[in-house]
Write a structure and sequence with these properties.
Number of domains: 1
CATH class: Alpha Beta
CATH superfamily: Metallo-beta-lactamase domain
Largest sheet: 7 strands, mixed
Distance between the termini: 37 Å
Oligomer: single chain
Number of strands: 13
Strand content: 25-35%
Strand order of the largest sheet: 1-2-3-4-5-6-7
Order of helices and strands: EEEEHEHHEHHEEEEEHEEH
Shape: globular
CATH topology: Metallo-beta-lactamase, Chain A
Helix content: 10-25%
Bound molecules: zinc ion
Length: 231
């Protein structure tokens, strides 16, 4: 399978079928002239993701930034691989998921690494997201991070707006699941989702369910998830 173009400079470059079993959907966004910001890292297939990027207009660029949307292994497992491949990479995560991502004692259950029969090699976090929203400026590209607790306490959603005014929301695990072992909270999640609906995104890049195009489709998907969970 080939990477999927979403917009100029934005591609789906990883997933179960694109990079390897267990991977979430991984998105590559071109920033500046030479760099890429990656949204999530997947489980363990960094090299495959890089090979996929060479099939896109983003080839020959270095990955300079990596945003981890929450602490689950299918999103963060390969982060340490990208840090080895790109020593200057800057990795971002929310403060409320930091302990799990950085492998503090008694946090293994929070990462769901056991679901994948793996042990997390904790990545280094260079920038801890604490504000809400927090605006990350990457070479002139603004990415707005919203704190969207629910699936995990430190889940974030990331909004990117291109020059034509298209709003792309990286929502990742909007669909849950909600588990006690993740410290999930569905009331918090419902509030987070209503906030995301109000953004009025044109495109939603989800973590496992794919890409939803068009404001109405984005809204319908999130509202459907709310209904499925009794909200
Ligand atoms: Zn998750």
């Amino acid at each position: 399978m080939n990477p999927k173009k979403i917009l100029d400079g934005l591609y789906l470059v990883g997933s179960e079928s694109l990079s390897g079993p267990g991977d979430c959907m991984i998105y590559a966004l071109g920033i500046g002239k030479d760099h890429i910001c990656l949204i999530d890292a997947g489980t363990q297939y960094a090299q495959q993701i890089l090979d996929n990027i060479t099939k896109t207009e983003l080839k020959n660029r270095d990955i300079s930034d990596l945003i981890l949307t929450h602490c689950h292994f299918d999103h963060i497992g390969a982060a340490h691989q990208f840090q080895q491949l790109f020593p200057k990479i800057k990795t971002y995560a929310h403060s409320w998921d930091l302990a799990a991502i950085t492998g503090q004692p008694n946090t293994q259950g929070l990462t769901a690494a056991n679901w994948y029969g793996q042990e997390l090699v904790p990545p280094k976090i260079d920038y801890v997201i604490k504000k809400d929203p927090e605006i990350l400026n990457m070479e002139g590209t603004n990415l707005i991070c919203y704190h969207t607790p629910g699936h995990t306490p430190g889940s974030i959603a990331v909004l990117y707006e291109n020059e034509e005014g298209m709003k792309v929301l990286f929502g990742q695990d909007i669909h849950g699941p909600f588990m006690e072992e993740f410290n999930s909270n569905t009331d918090d999640w419902a509030k987070s989702m209503k906030r995301l609906i109000n953004i009025g995104a044109d495109i939603l890049c989800e973590g496992h369910y794919g890409i939803f195009q068009g404001k109405e489709n984005v809204k319908r998907f999130i509202e459907g998830q709310l209904r499925n969970n009794g909200y």
